[in-house]
């Protein structure tokens, strides 16, 4: 699955991806929510049309940016507020479970991932369990937002922060 984080594949043309039989591409909700933004994606008719891609799109929820952009993030029960990483822009993006689904709907994702509270793989202790519980609570909110749409799209839960067998069992119970 090629990664077109910001809605494009660097170094390959769409025709080359088709020739390689790439059936699905991964894009990122956080980055696309900032640039080009929801309104531009809606006007374009979604990311498929925006990038001239006729095959499937899977969108990451933006949760990974809680690790990669941790210094720019403020995580709360409501969601995560990010300062933009773009030096010439003072914009903020607040991702809540509902807003993540809204952006993924504007993108036109065929497969949408839930917003999850992601922690570094080296994190241990109470923060990991807190992230697991918050991810479960956010899953409920994502599913409610997803079900309120009439679009036929797959939506998947994500538990990237649950490495211990004990917490994995606890997450699914």
TrEMBL record:
Annotated InterPro entries: TGT-like_sf, tRNA_ribo_trans-like
Membrane spanning residue stretches: none
Keyword annotations of the record: Zinc
Keyword Zinc part of the UniProt annotation: yes
Gene Ontology terms, MF aspect: tRNA-guanosine(34) queuine transglycosylase activity
Gene Ontology cellular component annotations, sorted alphabetically: cytosol
GO terms of biological process kind: tRNA modification
Keyword presence, Disulfide bond: no
Superkingdom classification of source: Eukaryota
Residue span(s) of domain tRNA-guanine(15) transglycosylase-like: 1-159
Entries under NCBIfam families matching the protein: tgt_general
Protein's name in the database: tRNA-guanine(15) transglycosylase-like domain-containing protein
